[in-house]
Amino acid sequence: MTDPKAKTIDTLLSEIRTFIPPAEFVAQANVADPAIYASANEDWQGWWASWAEKLQWDRKWDTVLNWNLPYAEWFVGGKLNASVQCLDRHVAAGNGERIAFYFEGEQGDTRELTYSQVLRNVCRIANGLKSLGVNKGDRVAIYMPMVPELAMTLLACARIGAIFSVVFAGFSPTSLKDRIQDQTAKLVICADGCWRRGKVLDLKTVVNEAVAACDSVTNVVVLRRGGGCTSAAPATARDVEWNDVFANQADTCTPLAMDSEDPLFILYTSGTTGKPKGIVHTTGGYLTAALATTKLVFDLKEEKDVYWCTADIGWITGHTYIVFGPMANGATQVIYEGAPDFPHQDRFWALIEKYKVSIFYTAPTAIRAFMKWGEEHPAKHDLSTLRLLGSVGEPINPEAWVWYLHHIGGGKCPIVDTWWQTETGAIMITPLPGITTTVPGSATTPFPGIEAKLIQEDGSEVIGAGGGYLALTRPWPSMLRGLWGDNKRYEETYWSRFPGKYFAGDGAKRDENNFLWILGRVDDVMNVSGHRLSTMEIESSLVAHPSVAEAAVVGVAHEMKGQAPIGFVILRHGYVASPQLEQELRAFVGTEIGGLARPERITFTPELPKTRSGKIMRRLLRDIAEGKEIGDVTTLADPNVLKGLQAEFVKHD
Ligand code: PRX
How far away, in angstroms, is 522 Cα from ligand 1 center? Predict the structure, then answer.
């Protein structure tokens, strides 16, 4: 037998058309009977209530759902506290000594925290928050790196009923200021710095600049990251030290019984306008969906799995699938502070080996980077503890999917490609790993109890195979309850395009087997000579070429065709940019998808402009390609990338 690791992507793609859950996996799976879909659909409110019952309520709800379109209330009249679900009940059940977090700093410093220790710390922080005058309903803005204190701060806010709002610790001072001002936060909690690729990121300087214009903020709590991390920022009058306010507090704190519909957090996400939207999530419904999806989608066995989601807690994935989902289930997880390629490109694989990670959840953009770096890095490590892989955040191209399965999952781990959004709060479309025969590139079917439909321009429903706008047509417990301070925008953005249906902003197609394929944001869908084309589809095709590591495609205004696709390509190691290669790639797409999809031109580049969460900012590429003034770049990870790209683009002309 040939060494399977030596197989090319093309061979893998031709061999792996579908993935049937292995018998060994099915035998132990949390869900092994497909009848779950029919029974959940038949009584979807009852299905969600059965999950809510697994939580610990101070008062049981009177009504499962009040649906006053587009406003939902779940588990109405019920009372509970989110931190109790994640901590107290595990300790009370005798699992206090279970590890909650294996923390690893980028520099190699490590800490282990049990559920009991986390509970005590959370109580100290909660008591400290109260001592600073934080009350139920007050907003607390959090600007912290991936350290355990971040997760504990969220839980402490939840314990006293404060509404937390995490701002990813990579956002600019202006973005942070805008978010603090929008929610009129009373308190800001930050760290002085953190490690990223061997360098100290000075967070406090950003916070100082941001809060200077925020009158609502009474105090800024500063956690000292330690281990050589320092900040150049001076202390200000509102600053208090983390240790001074939290360390000496009592380690018990009575949790506040919150109404099921009390807000738990606000999380800002970008919309189609320049102003970010403050997505509001509430307590009972959010926790119910977080609990259920974590347990079933990741097939979690909390008593033995080691789970690792590589997202940052600054994004919704970290909220639901690091803090609330895994912790409500009592899981043991890895938290890693830094970059995947520091000090070497095998850091993730070394961590999986070290902590014996069994469930690994990451994003396609990361997987494509791993592909570019080469399979020799994972091959150096024992990854045999892995039993399930997840993907989130963008469509995963089949090449990345088969690479992931083969080189990380040893050919045996089911992959769950999970579609959802900040707004949905929890996973909506996904395989269930013990029963779904997956196909590379498809997120497959809605989670039990969720109803998704494809809608045409005129509002009619696509029946059977075909493409359309993705809409969720039934309320679900973790749905956003609105936008902070802007219900009009909530109604317009999500509920006006197809009245009565939640418009997700994504295009999708359904195949003959009833599987859904997410095509990407509809703002990234172009219309070439009257035909709809997905930028993602063309990108996927480019990436299928052996020379291409990563590709971005945008639809650019075109005199004759309306729009034309333009490609930006990062070559794999060992390939050299040339006009011949450009022609070859254009022709390649033409043959893969059709002449219509052939990019008008392709620019080779060493980098693409990305947000700090790794999403390619196609809007900026479009600006470059259309020769426009470049729009807002505040969310870019590295604004310098643009200058180089622009120069490359102009040189090509
Ligand atoms: O376009 C979809 C894409 O990410 C968008 C939501 O982004 P955000 O709110 O930042 O949340 C990301 C993490 C949940 C969606 O509208 N998206 C997310 N997951 C997938 C996806 N696209 C395709 N496949 C996915 N699995």
Answer: 12
Is residue 595 scored above 80 in pLDDT? no
Report the nearest-CA residue for atom 4 of ligand 1. Answer: 393
Q: Is the domain defined by 529-652 classed in CATH 3.90.1580.10?
A: no
Residue 236 identity (one-letter amino acid): T
Does the CB atom of residue 563 touch ligand 1 within 6 A? no
Cα of 420 from ligand 1 centre, angstroms = 5
The model's pLDDT over 358-389, given as tens digits with 9 standing for 90+, comes to 999 999 888 988 998 999 999 999 999 999 99
pLDDT in tens, 28-39: 999 999 999 999
Tokens of 57: 């309520």
- The per-residue pLDDT for range 139-191, each reduced to its tens digit, is 999 999 999 999 999 999 999 999 999 998 987 787 799 899 999 999 999 99
Q: Whose CA is nearest to atom 11 of ligand 1?
A: 421
Report the nearest-CA residue for atom 25 of ligand 1: 419
Three-state DSSP state, 46: helix
- Where does 132-201 have alpha helices with state H? 148-160, 173-183
Query: Relative to the CA of 418, which ligand 1 atom is closest?
Result: 26
Q: Span 109-268: which CATH code?
A: 3.40.50.980
Query: Ligand 1 centre and the CA of 545: distance in Å?
Result: 25
Would you kindly state where each structural domain of the chain is located, as residue ranges?
109-268, 529-652
CB 383 within 8 A of CB 407: no
Provide CB contacts within 8 A for 483, sequence distance 6+.
277, 278, 279, 280, 489, 490, 493
Give the integer Cα–Cα distance in Å for 608 and 553.
11
Which H helix or E strand runs over 104? strand 99-104
Rounded Cα distance, 134 and 379, in Å: 50
Q: Match 């703002």 to its residue by tokens.
A: 523
Integer-rounded Cα Rg, in Å, for the chain is: 24
What's the pTM value of the predicted model, to 2 decimals? 0.85
